[in-house]
């Protein structure tokens, strides 16, 4: 009974950015829970490798090279998913740029930098959701899962497109929930804290060390797998419009540190 609630058997899941980092771990976990997959990102190599691993587990998996900032490519991705499987049960909007150009003074950010950052970290989730929402409404069911960040809740010093985009993801989740759940579609959001990946390795933003995190260590990307499975599964059917942090308690004490806080001894 519980296993049934957590099973993804027979579910078709579209995931963006599923070839590397957190997306890779979530894709493999969802495959192990029974999902059939459509894996998208710009590079084909990483997603092909993950798709092969899913097929080795006995799942169906296809890859579609897609730039999620390009709405015609997003439309083609959803068409390909529907041609292959006839339905999409879950959309997991994971693609994002952690690296990009990193922290920069506001006056050095060009219009193009802003647009690429916001398009990748926020608009892409809107584009993908928009492209599949009507199909989900027609079926009267579907789940949209977005990926925000701790930076969706706190300012990031000189980190405009990431923090603003990820904050927008939280609001997109709420707005999808309030708009689409009367049609049977729920929307939730995963809020990772710091789980080092090549994406974070290559960023030049200041990242928290384990000693800022109540659990006392950074996360492991594989720890996101079970969260994705749960939010994609019938077990989470009554969860809607909410964001779920997986951050070792990083946000539990509030949104600080932003990098500006004075050093105050916390032990009394
Ligand atoms: N790791 C963390 O600690 C952490 C913390 C908070 C939030 N997050 C979020 O978690 C998600 C995954 O991050 P990660 O750490 O796993 O980094 P990552 O390994 O760099 O993964 C990002 C993925 O997004 C894809 N992507 C980027 N731009 C794209 C585009 N325009 N079109 C299609 N795909 C695109 C990349 O593939 P291609 O380059 O091949 O397109 C890549 O597979 C991101 O949304 C990130 O903001 C991560």
What is the compact description of this entry?
This protein has 268 residues and is of the alpha/beta class. It is 40% helix and 14% strand. It is built from eight helices and seven strands.
Kindly list the characteristics that best describe this protein.
binds NADP nicotinamide-adenine-dinucleotide phosphate, 7 strands, alpha/beta, Rossmann fold, 268 residues
Summarize the structure in words.
It is built from eight helices and seven strands; from the N terminus they run H-E-H-E-H-E-H-E-H-E-H-E-H-H-E. Helix 5 links the parallel strand 4 (90-93) and strand 5 (142-147). The chain is of the alpha/beta class and 268 residues long. It has a single domain, classed as NAD(P)-binding Rossmann-like Domain (Rossmann fold, 3-Layer(aba) Sandwich). The longest helix is centred in the middle third of the chain and has 29 residues, at 111-139. It has a seven-stranded parallel beta sheet with strand order 3-2-1-4-5-6-7, sandwiched between helices. Helix 2 packs parallel to helix 3, helix 2 crosses helix 8 (225-232) and helix 4 (71-85) packs parallel to helix 5 (111-139). The site of NADP nicotinamide-adenine-dinucleotide phosphate has 29 residues, from helix 2 and helix 7. NADP nicotinamide-adenine-dinucleotide phosphate (NAP) is lined by residues 16-17, 19-23, 41-43, 66-69, 94-98, 120, 147, 149, 192, 194-195, 197-200.
